[in-house]
Structure formats: structure tokens, C-alpha cells
Design a protein that fits this description.
The protein is of the alpha/beta class. The protein is built from eleven helices and 19 strands. Strands 1-19-18-17-2-5-6-7 form an eight-stranded mixed β-sheet. A hairpin with a 2-residue loop joins strand 17 (383-391) and strand 18 (394-402). The two termini are 29 Å apart. The relative contact order is 0.16.
Amino acid sequence: MFKFKPTITVATIALLAGAACAQESEQKRSGSETISFLAFGDSGYHYGYQKKKLWEEPFRTLEAFEADYRADWREDKKTPSEFQMPSLYFHPEMGGYIMRSGQQPVADAMKAYCEVNACEFGMMLGDNIYPDGATLGADGIDDDKRFEDIFTIPYQGLGADDPEFRIYTALGNHDWHTSREGAMAQVDYMEKSDQFYMDGIFYRVKPEAGNGDVELFVIDTEVLLSGVGYPEAILNEDGSEMKGTGPDDIDEWAKPINDAERNMVPWLEDALKNSTAKWKFVVAHHPLWSTGGSKFEQAKALRELLLPTLCEYADVYFAGHEHSLEVHTDTCETTPQGKREKPLLHVLSGAASKERSTHNKFAAFQAEAYPQQTAHYVRGMIWGFTHVELKGDEGVVRVISTPTDGSGEPYVEYEHKFENRGH
């Protein structure tokens, strides 16, 4: 449709594509052989909903915020010379500085991008509500208002020209923080929504736009991880993994409570194995691979649980959790069936509202210690989302950013081509 350049604005795309682009986009929306969709995660950071501690002890000066952020940087064993500050917002009611929210700018960027490129459905990859999910009013705010502020207002108009457009949703760890009842309140809202979609905390669904060729398998990795436990992630000074003394903190109410939740992994294997879809995408919150340096114990636990099934039956694993944009592949050589001709693609799209840096020392360690994975693209301290386009046996995932100035202008940063794994 257009000649790719490392960074392209939507305006440039439109100029390059002209009338042909508009015609092609219309054909995609009307159900041609091309299938296109969005994937974005960690989207629920809103100025109206902040941690209680920040309300009680706000950072009243830029210097105070920076001092605290530098302390965290040192504690995380990141290289001091690489220090970066996030973009900041002065919260007038709080009387202090907090991280700027990218929720509305990213939503605006997706709408702008989808004016030029077909977007037939979306995936929301968890941590949909910060800081602690729905509260059933325990924080003095009615959840109906919370849902309107965090779901209805930002994404109003996204997919509005397509009555079949839905955002297929997974829960993340923050969505569970208040209570199981709070998590279920969000599920109930999504199940009744005309724009979003859930069918319990884990489910399978064939989006209408996929014409039966695409099936999503949405799992709840917070419940999965809470059921098995994992140690705290600790790094050595050189960025290598230190053996954690664990276990890390988990919310007791997120542990599996019935046979269905306890058997989520066998359910996933059976569902994938018996799927008639050509493209099989597993949608979750926690990544299998990332470069933030603070989630690797969770990732290791998930690889042990999920990788044999994903390598055998899935085409792509989508996740968020880390507030970065990353594309990895895994050769599957550590699974019982061994290395595959076509690697498993892992798309990490967790930058839909909050910035976080990656960890260069940990990334270097991971590349050497785990040669089965390749990090094709990694960028932190960014707002953005991903867009996937499928045609025939081939697909392309595009990593798209938007500036932290809040303009909502989308920029194509990177694209990665992949093939159907032919299960």
C-alpha cells in the first residue's frame, strides 16, 4: 500500500497512497481477504484515578519527582548514565506532579491510524483500570463513572463505522488488585458492552471480520500465575538474573477457585488443537519475553506452563504488562518437540497509557542466556500500540507510536513480517 520508511506519519501515508489507499481500505472493511486489527495493553491509566499514597504525599516539585525516580532507577540496577525521565503532568487537585497519561493520545492515534488503514477489531491486553481495577465504590467512586471515564470516553468513535467492531478484552494484574468481585464487575461490564467483548475471564472467540479464519484464545495469566506462584524478580548489578528467594506477592482472591480456572492450560491446549481457524492467536496480559528486567520470573513460569502448547498450535502470542513496545520470536527449541521451522511470534504491546524504560543490561544478559529468543524490536519510554494485517499465509505487525506531547499523531516505527505456522 505504501513504501515503508522507519517513521511515517498518517498524513504521509495518505499522500503516498492517495485514492488507491482509500479504495483498498474500503475493500478491507467490506470483508475482502485482508484481515486487520489493533492490539494495545496497559491502557487504563487516568488522571482521575491515582494511588492513595500520591494523594497523601504528592511530589510538589519537579526535583522531588526526579529524586524519587532516580532512586527507583538505581534500585532496579539500571545504568545511571542512561537515566530518562517520563513526561510529567501537574495534577491541580493533587497539588503535585505525576506521570502524564497517554490513554487519550493513544486512543486518538488509533482512531487516526484507522481512518487510513483498516481496523476490523481490537485486542485489549489487560491492566485496563489503574491503579486497582473496579472497586464496587470502596474508593468513593461509582464504577459506572469509572467505566465511562476509562472505557467509554477515550475509545468513543473507534470502529464506529463498523457495527461488528469489538475490542476483545483480557484482564491484567491491576484489574484484580481490589477483589475478585471488582474483577468480575469489569467482566460483567465488558460482557454487556456494544464495543468491548468478554465471555468470562478466559474464552475463545472468532471475530466476525475473520470470516472463520481467525480465532482468539483469551486467557487470564494473573489467575494462572497466582495458582502456581513465582519468586521475586531480582537482578545482579550486571543485569543478570539473581535467584529469587520468593514467593512474590499475589492477591489471594486471584488464585483459581474452581476446576475450570485450575485447568486453564489444558483448556487452552484442547481449544487450540481442535480449532478450525487458520490463524490462532493467544491473548493474555503477562509476556513470555520482555526487556524491562522486573518481570522475568513471571515470564519463566509462563514459558514452562504455556510454551509447549503455544509452539505446537498457536501462531502469535499477544501480551502487555511491560509498558513498552516489543517484538520477539522464540525458536521453541526448549520445548519437548524441539526447534520449529517457523518460530513463535510474541508481540508485546503495553504502552497504551504509561511510559517505562527498558533495561539494557538485562536485555544483553537475556540475549546471551536465552539464545532461543530474538528481540527484533524493543522500545521503552513510549506511548503506542500495534496493528496487524493478515493476507493469505502472511502477516505483518506494525509498531506504532504517538508523541508524549499528546498530539495523538500516529507514527509507524517498525514492521515485522511473519508466516502462518501451518498447524
